[in-house]
Amino acid sequence: MFRILLVCLVSTLLQFSATAPDEHSFILEVRATGDNWCPQQCPGIPNKAGYNIELITESLREMNVDFRFFYQDWPKATATVQKGYYDILLTSTNPRALALNQPESPLSHQSWCSYQRYSSEIVRQNLTDLKDLRITYLKGSHLGTELTAHLNDPVNNLSITLVDNQFQSLPSLLFQFLLNKSTDSIVLPMDLANFYFELNHDVKNKVRLGYCTKPQPMYVGISPSDPKRSEELIRILDRGLKKLKAKGRYEEIVLKYFPKSPDR
How far apart are CA 71 and CA 46, in angstroms? Predict the structure, then answer.
């Protein structure tokens, strides 16, 4: 009888050890940082912390891990994750280029789009239409290979103006440039522009959407300072995100921010 009980106990423990890692982790809390980039990360907006914040918070909750986010400007946020002061950075199209590790699955996607005035005579909806223009966009933007190559090609005769990453004034600054005819076209993320339009319908009615890049995957950047912790973070982030999507909760969060035509 004792042998039977012992065999049953060992079998139970083996089953637990095989399944428990999927749901439990030695990591109890994840500390993240990133810049103010609404609607991805939104400080001070009631009931809308930002879709990236909500996605990762609930993904980690699926894995019984707490989440805390701290706002910093982008250069400082990147440096502090590289040094291990924070676990993860929100978000980048290529974390490895920032000397950070990367999960298998992207957290979200982002498209860069050009905008022009409605009063413009030529509608520029194709990449090849962007020529003989003054174009303004954010300094340090990762616009994708195709758009970047086009903007840097002297054959297209483009006059480029770059603005610094000052999010609080970035959308209004770019659209002000456009509407004041200080530039012919501006380029910024579609989700950023759509969020701005929600608060500024008068601007929305004066501008036209032009060329957009294909959606680029946006990844969480993971600090490489502690290899064991980094490996575990990759596991729980991928696993938690997969569970969130299986429940349909991922789509619910995205639709909360883009109820009519989500681009991801």
Answer: 16
* Residue 178, pLDDT score: 94
Tell me if residue 212 falls in helix, strand or coil. strand
What interhelical angle do 190-199 and 170-179 show, nearest 10? 80
Return the structure tokens found at 134.
């003054």
Residue where the block lists tokens 């982790």:
25
Instruction: Compute the Cα dihedral for 78, 83, 84, 86 and give only its sign.
Output: negative
pLDDT, one tens digit per residue, over 224-260 is 999 999 999 999 999 999 999 999 999 999 988 887 5
Give the C-alpha separation, 138 to 170, whole Å.
Answer: 8
Grouping H, G, I as helix, E, B as strand and the rest as coil, residue 66 is strand
Q: Is 178 exposed, middle or buried (0-12, 13-18, 19+ CB in 10 A)?
A: buried
Helix (H) or strand (E) holding 67: strand 66-71
Give 214's DSSP letter.
P
Q: What is the pTM of this model?
A: 0.80
Listed in sequence order, the DSSP H helices in the chain are 2-23, 51-61, 74-82, 145-152, 170-179, 190-199, 201-204, 227-246, 249-257
pLDDT tens-digit series, residues 90-114: 999 899 999 999 999 999 999 999 9
> β-strand 29-34 against 88-92: which pairing, if any?
parallel
